[in-house]
Amino acid sequence: MREKLLQRGELHGGYHVEMETIHRRNAKRLREIIAEIGYPTISKVGEAASNSAWLIVQHAIGEPQFMQDCYQLLLDNIMDINLANLAYLHDRIQVFKSKPQRYGTQLSSCGSIYPMEDKNAINSLRSTMNLLPLNPKEMNKIEDVKRIPFLDQENDTYNEWRKKLAG
Protein backbone atom coordinates (compact mmCIF):
# COMPACT_ATOMS: atom_id res chain seq x y z
CA MET A 1 0.00 0.00 0.00
CA ARG A 2 2.79 2.42 0.89
CA GLU A 3 4.38 1.98 -2.56
CA LYS A 4 1.03 2.54 -4.28
CA LEU A 5 0.46 5.75 -2.32
CA LEU A 6 3.97 6.94 -3.16
CA GLN A 7 3.43 6.21 -6.86
CA ARG A 8 0.16 8.13 -6.78
CA GLY A 9 1.88 11.02 -4.97
CA GLU A 10 -0.49 10.72 -2.02
CA LEU A 11 1.92 9.89 0.80
CA HIS A 12 2.87 13.22 2.33
CA GLY A 13 1.83 15.79 4.92
CA GLY A 14 0.32 13.58 7.57
CA TYR A 15 -1.11 10.14 8.09
CA HIS A 16 -2.91 8.81 5.01
CA VAL A 17 -6.27 7.25 5.86
CA GLU A 18 -5.50 4.05 3.90
CA MET A 19 -2.25 3.56 5.83
CA GLU A 20 -4.03 4.21 9.11
CA THR A 21 -6.68 1.61 8.23
CA ILE A 22 -4.01 -1.01 7.55
CA HIS A 23 -2.07 -0.15 10.70
CA ARG A 24 -5.19 -0.30 12.88
CA ARG A 25 -6.23 -3.64 11.37
CA ASN A 26 -2.76 -5.06 12.01
CA ALA A 27 -2.75 -3.72 15.58
CA LYS A 28 -6.17 -5.28 16.21
CA ARG A 29 -4.88 -8.68 15.09
CA LEU A 30 -1.72 -8.32 17.18
CA ARG A 31 -3.87 -7.50 20.23
CA GLU A 32 -5.72 -10.78 19.66
CA ILE A 33 -2.41 -12.66 19.44
CA ILE A 34 -1.14 -10.99 22.62
CA ALA A 35 -4.37 -11.96 24.39
CA GLU A 36 -3.78 -15.59 23.34
CA ILE A 37 -0.04 -16.05 23.89
CA GLY A 38 1.35 -12.84 25.37
CA TYR A 39 3.82 -10.75 23.43
CA PRO A 40 5.21 -12.72 20.45
CA THR A 41 8.77 -13.17 21.67
CA ILE A 42 11.54 -14.93 19.78
CA SER A 43 11.17 -18.16 21.76
CA LYS A 44 7.39 -18.24 21.18
CA VAL A 45 7.17 -17.43 17.48
CA GLY A 46 10.71 -17.17 16.08
CA GLU A 47 12.82 -14.13 15.32
CA ALA A 48 11.15 -13.18 12.03
CA ALA A 49 7.62 -13.27 13.46
CA SER A 50 8.71 -11.45 16.62
CA ASN A 51 10.27 -8.72 14.47
CA SER A 52 7.07 -8.54 12.42
CA ALA A 53 5.05 -8.05 15.60
CA TRP A 54 7.33 -5.18 16.58
CA LEU A 55 6.94 -3.63 13.13
CA ILE A 56 3.17 -3.64 13.60
CA VAL A 57 3.62 -1.88 16.95
CA GLN A 58 6.11 0.62 15.50
CA HIS A 59 3.60 1.55 12.79
CA ALA A 60 0.54 1.63 15.05
CA ILE A 61 1.04 5.37 15.34
CA GLY A 62 -2.69 6.04 15.52
CA GLU A 63 -2.81 4.03 18.76
CA PRO A 64 -0.29 5.54 21.17
CA GLN A 65 -1.57 3.63 24.20
CA PHE A 66 -1.11 0.35 22.34
CA MET A 67 2.45 1.39 21.50
CA GLN A 68 3.16 2.19 25.14
CA ASP A 69 1.56 -1.04 26.36
CA CYS A 70 3.69 -3.03 23.92
CA TYR A 71 6.79 -1.12 25.00
CA GLN A 72 6.15 -2.39 28.52
CA LEU A 73 5.66 -5.92 27.19
CA LEU A 74 9.00 -5.66 25.40
CA LEU A 75 10.64 -4.54 28.65
CA ASP A 76 8.99 -7.43 30.48
CA ASN A 77 10.49 -9.83 27.91
CA ILE A 78 13.84 -8.09 27.41
CA MET A 79 15.82 -11.35 27.31
CA ASP A 80 13.64 -12.75 24.51
CA ILE A 81 13.35 -9.87 22.01
CA ASN A 82 15.47 -8.00 19.51
CA LEU A 83 16.91 -5.14 21.60
CA ALA A 84 17.08 -2.84 18.58
CA ASN A 85 13.28 -3.05 18.35
CA LEU A 86 13.00 -1.85 21.94
CA ALA A 87 15.30 1.08 21.16
CA TYR A 88 13.31 2.14 18.10
CA LEU A 89 10.00 1.96 19.97
CA HIS A 90 11.38 3.87 22.96
CA ASP A 91 12.62 6.67 20.73
CA ARG A 92 9.43 6.86 18.66
CA ILE A 93 7.30 7.23 21.79
CA GLN A 94 9.64 9.93 23.14
CA VAL A 95 9.54 11.92 19.90
CA PHE A 96 5.74 11.76 19.79
CA LYS A 97 5.79 13.28 23.28
CA SER A 98 8.23 16.05 22.22
CA LYS A 99 10.89 14.59 24.50
CA PRO A 100 14.54 13.81 23.68
CA GLN A 101 15.22 10.32 22.41
CA ARG A 102 17.83 7.97 23.85
CA TYR A 103 19.19 5.93 20.93
CA GLY A 104 19.07 8.30 17.95
CA THR A 105 16.72 6.23 15.82
CA GLN A 106 14.21 8.93 14.90
CA LEU A 107 14.53 11.88 12.54
CA SER A 108 12.86 15.26 12.75
CA SER A 109 10.47 16.34 10.00
CA CYS A 110 13.38 18.19 8.33
CA GLY A 111 15.59 15.06 8.22
CA SER A 112 17.99 15.81 11.07
CA ILE A 113 18.32 13.45 14.02
CA TYR A 114 15.76 14.41 16.66
CA PRO A 115 17.38 15.70 19.89
CA MET A 116 19.02 13.23 22.25
CA GLU A 117 18.96 12.74 26.02
CA ASP A 118 22.76 12.38 26.07
CA LYS A 119 24.54 12.99 22.78
CA ASN A 120 27.92 12.10 24.31
CA ALA A 121 26.76 8.61 25.31
CA ILE A 122 24.87 7.84 22.12
CA ASN A 123 27.19 5.25 20.62
CA SER A 124 27.70 3.35 23.87
CA LEU A 125 23.91 3.31 24.37
CA ARG A 126 23.36 2.17 20.79
CA SER A 127 25.89 -0.61 21.29
CA THR A 128 23.91 -1.99 24.25
CA MET A 129 20.88 -2.27 21.96
CA ASN A 130 22.70 -3.94 19.04
CA LEU A 131 22.53 -0.77 16.94
CA LEU A 132 25.42 0.39 14.78
CA PRO A 133 27.26 3.49 15.99
CA LEU A 134 26.54 6.85 14.42
CA ASN A 135 29.38 8.18 12.30
CA PRO A 136 30.76 11.72 12.79
CA LYS A 137 28.60 13.11 9.97
CA GLU A 138 25.48 11.66 11.59
CA MET A 139 26.59 12.93 15.01
CA ASN A 140 26.73 16.44 13.56
CA LYS A 141 23.10 16.07 12.41
CA ILE A 142 21.78 15.60 15.95
CA GLU A 143 19.62 18.55 16.90
CA ASP A 144 20.11 20.27 20.25
CA VAL A 145 17.48 19.58 22.92
CA LYS A 146 16.80 23.32 23.13
CA ARG A 147 15.51 23.16 19.55
CA ILE A 148 12.61 20.82 20.32
CA PRO A 149 10.04 23.67 20.43
CA PHE A 150 11.32 24.95 17.07
CA LEU A 151 11.40 21.49 15.51
CA ASP A 152 7.84 21.00 16.67
CA GLN A 153 6.81 24.08 14.67
CA GLU A 154 8.60 23.23 11.39
CA ASN A 155 5.81 21.12 9.95
CA ASP A 156 2.44 22.10 11.38
CA THR A 157 0.46 19.21 9.88
CA TYR A 158 2.91 16.56 11.06
CA ASN A 159 3.34 18.05 14.49
CA GLU A 160 -0.37 18.59 15.15
CA TRP A 161 -0.90 14.93 14.32
CA ARG A 162 2.13 13.79 16.37
CA LYS A 163 1.06 15.73 19.46
CA LYS A 164 -2.50 14.41 19.14
CA LEU A 165 -1.08 10.91 19.25
CA ALA A 166 1.06 11.62 22.30
CA GLY A 167 -2.07 12.37 24.29
Characterize the structure shown:
- Pfam families: DUF6624.
- InterPro entries: DUF6624.
- This protein is mostly helical and 167 residues long.
- It has a domain of 81 residues.
- Helices cover 57% and strands 0% of the residues.
- It contains 10 helices and no strands.
- Helix 4 packs parallel to helix 6.
- The relative contact order is 0.11.
Principal-axis shape equals globular
Distinct helical segment count: 10
Could you list the spans in which at least 5 consecutive residues all have pLDDT below 50? none
Q: H/E series, N to C?
A: HHHHHHHHHH
* Biggest sheet overview: none
Computed CA radius of gyration, to the nearest angstrom: 16 Å
Helix content: 55-70%
InterPro entries: DUF6624 (IPR046732)
Pfam family, one: DUF6624
Short account of what is shown:
By secondary structure, the chain is mainly alpha-helical. It has a domain at 1-81. Helices cover 57% and strands 0% of the residues.
Task: List the defining traits of the structure above.
mainly alpha; DUF6624; single chain; globular; 167 residues
Topology:
Layout: H1 2-7, H2 17-37, H3 42-45, H4 47-58, H5 64-76, H6 83-96, H7 122-128, H8 136-139, H9 148-151, H10 156-166
